[in-house]
Amino acid sequence: MSVMSFLGAIGAAQKEAMDADERVIIIGEDVEANVYGTTGGGKTRQETGDFVQMYGRNRIRNTPISEEGIVGAAAGAAMTGLRPIVDLSYSSFLYMAMDQLVNQVAKNRYMFGGQASMPAVFRSAMFYGLNTGAHHSDRPYPMFMNAPGLKIMVPSTPSDAKGLLRTAIDMNDPVLTFEACILWGLKEEVNDDEFWIPFGVARTHREGTDVTIVAISSSVHEALAAATELETEGISVEVIDPRTLVPLDKRAILNSVAKTGRLVVVEPAHRTCGAAGEISAIVAEEVFDSLKAPIIRITAPDMQIPFSPSLEKQMYPNKQDIVAAVRKITQKDKERVLA
Amino acid sequence: MSVMSFLGAIGAAQKEAMDADERVIIIGEDVEANVYGTTGGGKTRQETGDFVQMYGRNRIRNTPISEEGIVGAAAGAAMTGLRPIVDLSYSSFLYMAMDQLVNQVAKNRYMFGGQASMPAVFRSAMFYGLNTGAHHSDRPYPMFMNAPGLKIMVPSTPSDAKGLLRTAIDMNDPVLTFEACILWGLKEEVNDDEFWIPFGVARTHREGTDVTIVAISSSVHEALAAATELETEGISVEVIDPRTLVPLDKRAILNSVAKTGRLVVVEPAHRTCGAAGEISAIVAEEVFDSLKAPIIRITAPDMQIPFSPSLEKQMYPNKQDIVAAVRKITQKDKERVLA
Amino acid sequence: MATLSREQKIEAQRRMLRIRAFDERASKMVKRGHIPGTVHTSIGQEAQVVGATMALGEKDYMSGNHRSHGHPIGKGSPLGPLMAELQGKSTGVCQGKGGSLHLADFNVGSLGESGIVGSSIPIAMGAALSSQVLGRDTVALAFFGDGAANQGVLYESMNMSGVWNLPVIFLCENNQYALSTPAHTVTSGVIAERAAGFGIPGIRVEDGQDLLAVFDAVSTAVERARRGEGPSLIEVVTYRYNEHSEGLRLGTDYRPADEREAWLKKDPLVLFREHLISVEGFSAEEMDALEAEILAEVDAAVAFSENSPWPDPSVGFKDLYTDSEYAA
Amino acid sequence: MATLSREQKIEAQRRMLRIRAFDERASKMVKRGHIPGTVHTSIGQEAQVVGATMALGEKDYMSGNHRSHGHPIGKGSPLGPLMAELQGKSTGVCQGKGGSLHLADFNVGSLGESGIVGSSIPIAMGAALSSQVLGRDTVALAFFGDGAANQGVLYESMNMSGVWNLPVIFLCENNQYALSTPAHTVTSGVIAERAAGFGIPGIRVEDGQDLLAVFDAVSTAVERARRGEGPSLIEVVTYRYNEHSEGLRLGTDYRPADEREAWLKKDPLVLFREHLISVEGFSAEEMDALEAEILAEVDAAVAFSENSPWPDPSVGFKDLYTDSEYAA
Ligand SMILES: Cc1ncc(C[n+]2csc(CCOP(=O)(O)OP(=O)(O)O)c2C)c(N)n1
Ligand SMILES: Cc1ncc(C[n+]2csc(CCOP(=O)(O)OP(=O)(O)O)c2C)c(N)n1
Ligand SMILES: [Mg+2]
Ligand SMILES: [Mg+2]
Q1: Residue contact D122–B68, C-beta within 8 A
Q2: Whole-angstrom distance, CA of residue B170 vs CA of residue B172
Q3: Which single residue of A139, A230, C39, D280 could bond A235 by disulfide (Cβ 3.0 to 4.6 Å)?
């Protein structure tokens, strides 16, 4: 075990995978200079070691700014023997490669009757909350959840980032990772050995009996803080992080709501057609009879992200919103209805 | 009034708008030869008149196959005085222009503090159910619902297509239309005069008291057929077509569910993060206390679309699925819970 | 000048005949409703297709587009499973899940035809990247049309493969139309000449009905690629005899009436048959026999397909991912 | 050879000085946390920016990229609202909603800078389309970098505007790096030479520090466009003195140490000051006064911004659509 940042954990998983399998390559803009800090080779960004020195330019591919071409090349490479990790830097740039991601990466295996497999990982970071303005603040994972054929991970801790990314790289299906940039600096003890966290297995960060909170990406930490505050009021909150959205661990969510009878879903994406709506709909269909109160979503509004610090901060779910929502649905039913 | 097909109604709305405002232009692949049947000028495809003859090549712009460039050009043109109607033919091609649609068309007005407006319409047809295979069968409107700044219409009848499209063209915000190709041949009496149907106003096709069905695009017709069948069993079904998904007429849906206490949502898009999930989540949050039964979604599965007729037909919601779902949630509560 | 041996020439004619016979049959089947949806034939473009595929080795890769049957047939794919795919049968090369637009036969290096114009171009570049990284000597070729040549991804691919010296050939089938749109009305400049700005060779084969000319140009590019000298762009001028897709009826006459007549006089199958007789000394009878043999092959392919069962509905829920079936 | 009058030359130097002073101040403010996020300066590229914008008329349009302040300043936008935008103040040119990356000032024809590399190129083409359809005589110019020159949409735009003869100029600011990536490692061929394949003129201005050379090249393209003869591509070779963005620290030395020194010797502001003195006969004192005037202008812009209020939180929920406010 050693202390790793979220970013360092991503670097570590990439390094392990590069060492373990010669077919793994890294391809993307500015990966050679380690601009985004995950191709430096170490546990943290500062640590010595440089991927180009370690693996050479044959496997570390610094690309032109051509997202569509890059993703297409990775798709073709994945179908013919390589296992590319594509570094797309910001999630806002995925749209540039949307045709390749949806029409080729997601569809080829199915369309060709299973002849192809597509072992590729497409990494990108969601830079919300950092005053980067509307062009650099997207959190578009829900769009990709609507495209069958892709798998999606949204880790919220360094350990999860390392273990899930390793699984993603070793997997034979295409995976999109969405890394919350505000978590990059988060540190914790992480296993130095190789380990793999399975997809489709949620992590229950905290058990509780009154309310289930399903939280995604950075919202997990807001939810945990809210749970701590609510505990002092005698409200027992269960906090679940699905960790992967495709596949989604429905069982864990449904079992929890069956127990608590109340659900709040928190995520940083836009509200309409987001992951929170999906989880709400699953619950409203499958464990309706256990529900004691409305299902509340706490999300970013259906608004683009403004630049000014005085405008941006109100755009994402925070602890206070979560606390308020939980209080509301744990009031006695009568009060709630009257409220 | 005269009998118009769905496709003819689209052509008629385009013609009216071209006549009314010189700033309206049509831009897209093969629009000159009227390949997709909506630039022929008449009420039906066959009718005499040809947009190129009527309006000239200055306003009818046959383009290269360059979706990203086309959409970007339309965006720039819309910001500087034109009102482009962009014909993108198949909805599956939208991904090619995704960056322009999400990063420019949807964001510019907001990012620039209201300096720009973006009066452009992006038409595309969803070709599902016609054995065109995975590359031509997308129904991607839910993805765009997750991108604030776009408006979205999904008409299900010729009259609605004409009135909504006219509103879209005359509107100062960008609109995406998703036309179900299987409805193109549908005919009905349509007002020959100019008329405008407001966005954000659902159409209640049928009133009922036991169950609300919200149905989207071609699913409206499946829902109506199901309602007729259920009537013979004594089940009274209300069928609502939102007609526009952004803005969404929440009020109409919530009022209906408050009355019936039961909701089934039907749509042809993939299930996860679809419009059905969104509508379910709104209802589960806002009128929970009226709900008497689980909310059921009937959608395409999270699967790509196979080519073979023996495989494809099972992929879309049909009348029987709807009937079965309604029966299930109208059973007495006890039976339902045991079932 | 790269050329073909006598046996290779016969094999080339065999493949051209296969494409013609297969597509003519498919056209009829679409019109009679025996093939669902539609198909895009390569009739008239056989020399361009086979001239290119004959220049590739068995292990070389290839990606293609909606005008899709010629490419795998040219690469040596057996006809039965292709026809079964067109009909959506369980024995189809993609189990009936792809259809005409999405033929793929990994056994012959066919990485898939694409219904999205331009979208499969970088796929071939990716296959070339695999070859380079893994130290294989395979090359990859991307087929696309004059219409697709206006999709930006082609230039991203030319640039990236140029920088990396990837063994890939960009083969533009310029049949002078993109659906109803004449190429000259939507193409600024000359496609082949676009290569120079990206630092790679650009060749224009003016007579794409001449199989040997196409073979020569593509062979040169393939050898170059195999030597590690990087990509090439080849534009081949050709013509499709049929409508854009079978069954399509357009109100407008976007092609001059006499144009097709003129191109019919340069039918690549007739031209190459004459070459085989006059230059290689085959007899007309031998050529007739070959043609009959191919018709029988197509008959057998259709019979194979007709006798094949429909895929079981459950197949529609398989193969999305490698590790799990769909569970609704 | 298009050239500038004496007054225009002073105006050009004024604009270059504005860009330099504005960006130097912005750089400091970022490092002190007085500007949120980061900024990308045009320091070192002033001649290339102003040479281009001086060739445009007031009503002409322009789109740009992340290296964003020079473009509107060069086009004549007042500094106060630009600085306020960088700080996220309510008096910002975009009400604080855009920030450095998304400056736009429709009053001077600035249709918006874009944080997405390459994405604003077709926007300029669209503005040119408006001009053509509506019979206006305005032209449009798209600024983008050497990195953006590898985005496919540039070639789609060159082709489409070539076919339609649109009055648009594609102006590549080749500062030889895209973030940490040297252009020559990711660019196959020569950017300016890519125009030929798309049937449009491609000009390479080798000395982009020479304002008059840039002005001449762009003026020629603008006149051509205004005459209805269509688009041009102009590649200007230049250099940025600062890091890609202010505050960025990279582990690697991707630029040779002496390279910057060499370019500093060709500082466009110094060169043009010398030109104004030696050729136009201005005195050193006059030049000093101009420089002082501009510093004062920037001081005033900063004061304007500092004294401006933050936008009210409700502003964050306005302007998404024209017809409605957001109702949660
Ligand atoms: C991205 C995309 N845009 C548009 C289409 C519709 N479409 C299918 S084929 C075609 C014409 C293609 O022309 P070309 O590339 O020259 O190939 P050809 O059919 O002539 O062989 C068009 C516009 C499509 N399938 N994909
Ligand atoms: C589509 C997209 N890809 C990547 C980036 C990240 N990025 C921002 S600026 C930049 C380099 C741009 O280089 P160039 O176009 O030469 O402009 P310069 O910064 O040199 O002026 C990169 C890679 C981005 N903003 N958008
Ligand atoms: Mg063609
Ligand atoms: Mg640069």
Answers
A1: yes
A2: 7
A3: A230
